[in-house]
Amino acid sequence: MTIVDTTELRVRFAATLSDLYGREVPAYQTLVEVSAEVNQRYLEKNGADAQRLGSLARVTAERHGAIRVGSPNELRQAAVVFEAFGMYPVGFYDLRDAAPRPIPVVSTAFRPVDAAELAANPFRVFTSMLVPEDRRFFDANLEARLQAFIGARTLFSVELLELAEIAIADGGLPVPEADRLLELATAAFALSTEPIDEAWYRELDAISAVAADIGGVASTHINHLTPRVLDIDDLYESMQARGIEMIDDIQGPPDWDGPDVLLRQTSFRALAEPRLFRRADGTVGEGDLRVRFGEVEARGVALTSAGRDLYDELLAEVDRRRTVDPVRARREVAREVWAERMPHTERELEKRNLAFFTYSVAADAPRGGDLPSDLTALIDGGWVVAEPIVYEDFLPRSAAGIFASNLTAAGTVNEESDGTPRDMEWLEMAIGKPILLPEEVYEAQRQASLTVVAEGLGLDGI
Ligand code: OOG
Ligand code: NI
Q: What is the ipTM of this complex?
């Protein structure tokens, strides 16, 4: 019996969702085409170095998606579906007090964790859960109606959840069941053609477009699918040249002379898509909604917590300089601040323990002589080489920016009320599984590589 294993299921899941999204949102196809051109161009320009942060095969197939659910129960079910594809919750993001605009959700990302699994296919899904209990957005009456609406719908069928459970237990599925799992899981994230209750949708939309997108319709959907590029500045210009209007900015680190760190993202605005509405008089008619958009990203090296602190300080410094001098473009100010304060080389990031690397014994390591046990000396002496660990996660501020740049209405927030406490422990209870911390995942990878190096060099430890 041929078994489709977890890795292969994920490879196919990323591909079937990409086909679905391409059919539903044609501009996404353009984005994928332009991304492939940009990556090819980058490779031609930069040769072997181009694939330092991931092979072209990995980067070309690489996507992240985003979905939004309405309750802990829905989140728990989503976790079962994703686990069937070898994707586990990593990281906690509270977007409710995010600048520039608060969003009534808390989020995590489902993704593979092992280096080999990431290399095979790093598909990840940013998953947000509505917090209807949060009084800054919803009063008690609306909370109750939201919970009733969400409680009455089914996002994931019993058949899908049962197949997913078997895939988890067995590490894969035989061919016919694997096909069925993929079909049902993909369909669960398609845009529904069910008529939307217009009055209900508009009532939620006035408070938060994201609340309407989650609690105003009877199903969830992939709301963007993001390819990865090796040069996001090239991509931005190429898309504009094709007549697709991009948002004003590239979120995250600036375009600068030093190493690529963390994550840079940009997007084109949500497009109007035809949807059916049930009007107050009971008739059904066509209208449109702008909720789904195209996003693209470039990934760099993961930062340690010290590196993240520095990154946050630089963000704050950029904000500060812009308050003093608001006419200057963010990009320009950011470039200036980074040039002053961010280490200009990967080597420097490594030495100062600001970024994560894996280590290996150099192929041309010198023989004989006394081996130092200090990592910096081992690298400087040519015994050990360091490779950057790619940042596989998200940035809360960019996420909030991505949400906000695609909302038209401002929404309403009652600042007088207190927010409902929701932290990572709470979300773990809701999901029923531990959430991994990104920094711990990277640190474990780093440590594992150091253990191998120490063994290879016959050292007691590094
Ligand atoms: C998720 C927005 C966050 C990202 O790339 O930061 C995100 C959403 O719009 O539901 O996908
Ligand atoms: Ni995204």
A: 0.98
Choose the residue to mutate in 75, 394, 405, 407 for probing ligand 1, maximizing ligand atoms within 8 Å of C-beta. 394
Tell me how far the alpha carbon of residue 40 lies from the centroid of ligand 1, in angstroms. 26
Peptide bond into 372 cis (omega under 30): no
CATH at residue 207: 3.10.180.80
The whole-number mean pLDDT for each consecutive block of 10 residues of the chain, a chain of 462 residues, reads 95 96 90 94 89 88 95 97 98 87 93 94 96 94 97 97 98 97 97 93 93 95 94 93 85 93 90 90 91 91 97 94 91 95 97 97 85 92 96 89 71 77 91 95 97 92 82
In this prediction the pTM is 0.95
Give me 65's structure tokens. Answer: 């998606």
Looking up tokens 């760099």 gives: 300
Tokens encoding 450: 């150091």
Q: How many domains does the chain have?
A: 3
Which amino acid residue places its CA nearest to atom 2 of ligand 1?
Answer: 399
Which atom number of ligand 1 is nearest to the Cα of residue 406?
A: 9
* Residue 448 structural domain: 356-389+436-462
Q: Which residues line ligand 1 (CB under 6 A)?
A: 66, 68, 126, 128, 223, 265, 295, 394, 398-399, 402-403
In a domain, 283, yes or no: no
- Residue 113 sits in the same domain as residue 141: yes
Q: For ligand 1, atom 7, which residue shows the shortest CA distance?
A: 399
Of 16, 56, 399, 110, nearest to 228 (Cα)? 56
For 31-50, how does the pLDDT look when each residue is reduced to its tens digit (9 = 90+)? 999 999 999 999 999 988 88
- What kind and span of H or E run contains 69? strand 63-69
Task: Name the residue with the closest Cα to ligand 1, atom 3.
Answer: 399
Q: Let me know whether 347 and 360 are in one domain.
A: no
67 and 188 share one domain? yes
Non-local (6+) Cβ contacts of 378 within 8 A are 371, 372, 384, 453, 457, 462
Is 247 part of any domain? no
Atom of ligand 1 nearest to the CA of 394: 6
Give residue 191's pLDDT: 92
Whether residues 323 and 376 fall in one domain: no
